[in-house]
Amino acid sequence: MSSNYVVDFEPIGKRIQISDDSSILTAAQKVGADLNAICGGIGICGSCLVRRISGSLTPLTPMEQDILSSEQINHDYRLACQAYPISDIKIEIPPESLTSLHRLQIDGQENIVAADPEVIGLDIEVSAPNQTDLRSDFSRVNQAVQKCGYLPLSGDLQSISQLSDVLRKEHGKVRLAIKPESHRTQLISTFPAGTKLLGLAVDIGSTKLALYLVDLSNGITLAKTGVVNPQISYGEDVVSRIAFANQKPANRVLLQKRLVEVLNSTISGLCEETGTQQNQIVDAVIVGNTVMHHFLCHLPVYQLGIAPYVAAVSEPLYFKASEVGLDLAIAAHIFTPANIAGYIGGDHASVLGTIVDHNLSRTTVVIDIGTNTEISLFYKNKIFSCSTASGPAFEGAHIHDGMRASSGAIEKVRIVDGKISVTTIGNVPAVGICGTGILSAIAEMLRYGVIDRRGTIKKGLPCVRASDHHVDIVLVEASESGSKRAIVVTRKDIHEIQLAKGAIRSGIDVLLQSAEIQADDVEKWVIAGAFGTYLDISSAIRIGMFPAVPIERFLQVGNAAGEGAKQMLLSKGKRQITNEIAQRVNYIELTISAGFSDRFIHSMYF
CB count, 10 Å around CB of 374? Predict the structure, then answer.
């Protein structure tokens, strides 16, 4: 007798129940995961490479032993066409095994900043040593730097060890990457004269990573990309990843290692795209929420999982890229801005630094929507901030037919003349529904009367399918879907959105109450983050996630955290401004805020 098991595909967030006589490749095809299978699944091409995260699979086949390296086998990689489940299992699909990428928002609203980077290039020429001039290589370069008007040069063993070889190879004509400081000039790296110096800006989100490769001389973004955060295979949100890290010390090391592996491979791809080298990257700014920041920096996260949720460090950090395993220039450093609180990190400080005028004079609400949503209110030169656990529903997780924003995901729902119509990413047959789609669907069902303000589904309507155990809203019939399964919205799905939107709305209301103002007093509502980019504002207002204020007051700015990281990469002044803003925040812990529980319950109603 066959058994049925649940297969969870990450990072795409799709799940399916299959029998133990179906391969992982078959499961991927049934659920609509775009997994490579060049040979058609006969096990000879190796393109359907996946990685077991948890659960059990059938033993390795002879084909797998021939194709997979010992390192891949040791790290639980399998060929999806050769592996069959023997328990519930979680599978990671590497980016290279996907035929289509997820839609990852990496663009933000650009603001021009005057180029004043921390690290600059300096072309010098030094004479060769001879019998009457026995000065060391470093002394020659040091004196040349001072002749150009800079303070004495200082270097570490890494940067000094590189100097002599490049000097001789380039016959004394070199470009130095230097960091002028108040008491010295720090040597970062040495290159042939005229070498382009690059900077790297990174936004480490819980779900996605956004990377930008920048020319430090003119501020031009040479290349950019977004990839899924590999840590999602170990937990959909920061709380579950903290729990995983706390199980044993090796788990925290694993989360850091997986993150750095993907960062390095992505950086390599950006450099290949632009015809540059990773060793040309002489400076980096990395932002992320406090938990992501701590994982990158090898910092403990245990204390972030228990009240009062204290960060190991909140101050800005400046450390060598090599300390965390990033492959950049030989002595390149990474700057991370200040963390505001345990659940409001440098990424939100980056958002505030890039989209809010420095004098803070305009009444503005900033909402950075994600698995964890940060909200800030600027009012009369004060900043009030809070963090809400909006959960992964907006990423398609915990939704019956939920998936992340990739090809075939429903992103918009409309009811016209009583009939449901859907729009999918890529305009292909629907295989699931992403966060913007489920919110659009619920707003439309509310407008049309399919659900009431409590979220209860009304029976007897053409789109409602009732059985003895549950009532569902059918968005796409099985005959019309790409997965050949009906795509539905369940009462549980509606409840998940009620929890998420209730958390955000109650956070907004608490900040307004703290400032003793009303929603209509707010001049501008800034919506940031990947989900916020594609969010239909009118739908969010209709379900009560945002207050009912004129829609023209809303501004969607995309990945403002990534844009802020770029600005800090190009401007020392912007780093200072961002840190000053972080220090001025009045953080409000919602869990101890008076009346929050009642407000949250009320906010769950539509």
Answer: 29
